[in-house]
Amino acid sequence: MLITCPYCGPRDVVEFTYQGDGNRTRPDPASTDLNAWNAYVYDRVNIAGDQNEIWQHSGGCRTHLAVTRNTLTHKISSVRSTHAEPPAPPKPARKKPRAKA
Amino acid sequence: MAETLSPLDTVLRAGRYANTAAKIGVTLSEVSPGSIVQVAAWPDTEAKVLEGIAKTTKLKLGGEPGAGAVSGNVAAFGIAPGRFLVISEDEGLADRLLGAIPATVGSVTDLSHGRTAIRIEGEKAEWLLAKFFAVDFSKAKFPVGRGVSTNHHDVFAQIQRRTENCFEVYVFRSFARSFWKALCHGAEENGYEVR
Ligand SMILES: [Zn+2]
């Protein structure tokens, strides 16, 4: 498996460290909501398909990366530095002008 | 500055080894640069850090990944976003860099005693490196001056092409002896010289 680091280019997976599910949101550190902390620590969606993950290029530039990997095929569809802005959501397709009746 | 003790002292012996019948294509040696310094920019100060490096060393680095330069007894290359390794034969480079790069611009870390620099030279240098690292070292993709951060198993390595047929590899000093031995084994089939 190759991961294309935005700085280093395509590199073998042995240079990277898996840092887990990229979908989790850490509750406010002051939060005492046990359910929210339980969900943060234990709940995983375990997707069969495209999954958001965090990896670190630990054997290279050491950047933390937000990676979208297909858990069935290992195909990686996107990689960006976690410092980079997430891509804007796709613009809604223009509505076709309705044919006049 | 305190004298640097080499972790290779007990294993580095000059001579020709292994397949000496073959044309010796690679020479291994230890370089002992007076200074190895890491410079890191803050998120918005990379251009100023590059200015500081240029002011101190006269080396002009592009900001693109792995870009580097070699001139006289100084060399530098990009090792990560906003981070650069600067090497000089002279001691005291960290202090000179600090003069040009105050804490508001970036951080300067003296790694001189923390890294061991190994020189791999000769027409088989690319061939030997390719045995250890999954990186394209061809001249087209990896021209003189260019650098890379990579690893061989758990041995983290930063590598720069110094001349057409010469590379320098910077490894953590605690891994240096083991890595040196591995390099020697890798070079055996073609014969190698240690200087
Ligand atoms: Zn990288």
TrEMBL record, chain A:
Basic residues bias located where? 92-101
Q: Which segments carry the region annotation Disordered?
A: 75-101
A single GO molecular function term of this UniProt record? sarcosine oxidase activity
What's this protein's name?
Sarcosine oxidase subunit delta
In its UniProt record, which GO terms are filed under biological process? tetrahydrofolate metabolic process
From TrEMBL, chain B:
Q: What is the lineage of its organism?
A: Bacteria, Pseudomonadati, Pseudomonadota, Alphaproteobacteria, Hyphomicrobiales
Please name one Pfam family that this protein belongs to.
SoxG
Gene Ontology terms describing biological process: sarcosine catabolic process
Q: Which Gene3D superfamilies match?
A: Heterotetrameric sarcosine oxidase, Probable tRNA modification gtpase trme, domain 1
Q: Which SUPFAM superfamilies match?
A: Folate-binding domain
Q: What is this protein called?
A: Sarcosine oxidase subunit gamma family protein
* Superkingdom of this protein's organism: Bacteria
Listed GO MF terms: sarcosine oxidase activity
